[in-house]
Write a structure and sequence with these properties.
The protein has helices at about 40-60, 80, 105-120, 150-155, 175-180, 200-215, and strands at about 1-10, 15-25, 30-35, 70-75, 125-130, 135, 140-145, 160-165, 185-190, 230-235, 235-240, 245-250, 255-260, 265-270, 275-280, 285-290, 295, 300-305. Helix 1 (about 40-60) crosses helix 6. Strands 1-2-4-3-5-9-7-8-10 form a 9-stranded mixed β-sheet, sandwiched between helices. Strands 6, 11, 13, 16 and 18 form a 5-stranded antiparallel β-sheet that branches. A 4-stranded antiparallel β-sheet has the order 15-14-12-17, with no helix packed on it. With about 300 residues, it is of the alpha/beta class.
Length: about 300
């Protein structure tokens, strides 16, 4: 294992920006794994730390197949993490809306350009991503439809679901999209937490990456086969919105099976605890996403359900 500094930049705030990485094996650029992109992605950073621990052990045992190199970048925005901010410290911009980046641009654009330079050329790219809503997902692989995506490869992670979706305008400035355009088979791996650590799901994420690397012939590793993934389009998820604002008291969690009419949650008045609204399941299915924010606003998305198909 080699610990490296890939890029540094003066930020004029507290400390220089430093992009650190861990390199395993030697030879062809086989796989690159990227962790926390934003300052509150503690789960994503923790997963990378656990993965580095496992890869270090595998390398010591000679279990990285010859002529394969694995690069792990645990954090792309540690400066913001150090001061408890989600986005860039000085201007609140999002690095994952700056790709492919500009070496002569603003700070986040220069950082994105440095990341792009470091990660290009790898056969496979894996990003531990987070969602813009506060909540929990069933762990899954998400792919944008760029014309370069591979559903068959996504299945090799052994997670229960693969979600596909059409790329939108802002997706074209993300790492995943630009990674695919540069010739890397790129995957976003979502776990059930962001700003807190979920040990069980972190272990599941690490196992899924090691399973993928093993199946691609990059490492030698014995593991559980995992799931045969169900591939779903993002439009197939049924969104459930809050009818009123107030405290959210959930009655159902991710992976719970529900029937149409089941009570998913109650919206509670924050002053007297009276029930303002009961949120009912609109379809039969499985809870895929649930909002975890204690308070929600009217028309907020609070659940996403995988609709059960009746045959």
């Amino acid at each position: 294992m080699n610990k490296e500094v890939l890029f540094t930049m003066n930020t004029g705030f507290r400390d220089d920006y430093t992009l650190k990485a861990f390199r395993f094996g030697k030879g062809e650029k086989a796989a690159c794994i990227v962790g926390a992109m934003r300052g509150n992605e503690y789960q994503q950073l923790y997963i990378c730390a656990k993965l580095i621990e496992q890869l270090k052990e595998l390398e010591q045992k000679g279990a990285i197949v010859a002529e394969n190199e694995i690069l792990v970048i645990p954090s792309i925005n540690s400066n913001s993490m150090n001061v408890g901010k989600r986005f860039w410290v000085t201007d609140n911009s999002d690095i994952n809306r700056q790709f492919p980046g500009n070496k002569e641009g603003e700070a986040t654009s220069r950082a994105a350009a440095a990341v792009m330079e470091a990660v290009k050329g790898y056969s496979y790219g894996i990003q531990f991503a987070s969602f813009y809503l506060e909540g929990e997902f069933i762990p899954h692989i998400r792919m944008m439809e760029t014309g370069y995506e591979s559903r068959s490869l996504a299945n090799l992670f052994g997670l229960p679901y693969v979600i596909t979706g059409k790329s939108r305008a802002f997706d074209k400035t993300t790492l995943n999209y630009n990674w695919q355009l540069s010739g890397t088979s790129a995957f976003s791996l979502y776990t059930g937490a962001t700003d807190r650590i979920n040990e069980k799901q972190a272990q599941e994420a690490v196992a899924s990456v090691l399973r993928f690397l093993m199946r691609m012939g990059i490492i030698r590793y014995h593991c559980h086969n995992g799931y045969i993934a169900s591939v779903l389009d993002e439009t197939e998820l049924v969104s459930v919105h809050s009818e009123r604002a107030g405290f959210l008291v959930r009655k159902k969690e991710i992976n719970d099976e529900v029937k149409r009419g089941d009570v998913l949650a109650e919206i509670i008045d924050p002053y007297d605890c009276s029930v303002r609204a009961k949120i009912l399941a609109p379809v039969d299915g499985i809870i895929f996403f649930t909002q975890t924010s204690p308070m929600v606003y009217q028309n907020s998305s609070i659940f996403k359900i995988i609709k059960k198909l009746h045959r």
